[in-house]
Structure formats: C-alpha cells, structure tokens
Input
Amino acid sequence: MVGSPTLLRGFGGSPALKRLISILSKLRHEGFKRRKLFCPRCGSPKLKPYSPLDGWLTPSQYVCEECGYRGAIVLEAEEA
Ligand SMILES: [Zn+2]
Output
C-alpha cells in the first residue's frame, strides 16, 4: 500500500474535508441518541405520527394529542 499514507495525509490537510468529516462523524454520533419530539405549539411530547392515506406523497407529519396540532414541523430534542 505504498502511496496510501501520503494520500491520506494530503486529504487530512484539507480544512474543508476535515470539517466535512467532523460533521459526518457528529451526525453519525447523534444518530445513536434517542430523539424526542415536542409539539411546537404547546410543547407537549405527546406527538403521534400522522399518516393520511396519501402519506407516501407528503413528508411525514405529526399530530399532537394535547392541542390537536398537526404538521410536519415539530421540535426535536435529545432525550436526557
Ligand atoms: Zn400540542
């Protein structure tokens, strides 16, 4: 594998790539954490996925059992 170390060192020296790698590793790291969803209107965590018949055409939506909010925009937080 002659040449590989030089290649890696060359890539590692790129600030843009370094940033990309850090972003990717951060995303992957966060992917392991449990996410909790909250209603953006009342802050309740009682959100249920809302699946209309044509749900496959639209982005996933959620329904708040507390205030009846329905939409694709929800608050997302890491579970403590
Ligand atoms: Zn709500």
User: Anything to note?
Assistant: Residues 34-80 form one domain. Residues 39, 41-42, 44, 64, 66-67, 69 surround zinc ion (CB under 6 Å). Strands lie at 35-38, 47-50, 61-64, 70-71, 75-78. The longest helix spans residues 15-31.
